[in-house]
Amino acid sequence: MKLLRRKAEVSLDARLEALAEAADLAEGRLGHDTVERARAVVTRAGVRRGLSVDHTAVALAGATGSGKSSLFNALSGTELATVGVTRPTTSKAQAALWGPDGSGPLLDWLGVPVRHTVEGETSGLILLDLPDHDSIELSHREEVDRLVAVVDLLVWVLDPQKYADAAVHERYLRPLARHRDVMVVVLNQVDRLPEHAVKRCLDDLRGLLEADGLDDVPLLAVSARTGAGIPELRELLDRKVSRRRAWSSRLAADVASSAAALWADTRPAVTGDAPAAARALAPTPDTRALTAARVPAPAEAAPSRADARTPETAWQGRAPAGTAHAGTTPAGPDRASAPGDVVVPEVTVSRALTRALAQAAGVPVVVDAVAKSHRHRSTAATGWPVTRWLRKLRPDPLRRLHLARGSRSSLPPATAVQASALDTALRDVGAAASAGVPEPWATAVRHAARSRSGELTDTLDRVVATVSGGVSRAPRWWRVAGTAQWLTVAAMAAGAIWLLAVFGLDYLMLPRPFTPTLGRAPWPTVLLIGGALLGVLIALVCRAAAWLGGRRRARRAARALRERIEQVAAELIVTPTRDELSRYARFAECVTVAAS
Question: What sign does the dihedral 369-373-379-385 (CA atoms) show?
Answer without folding.
Answer: positive
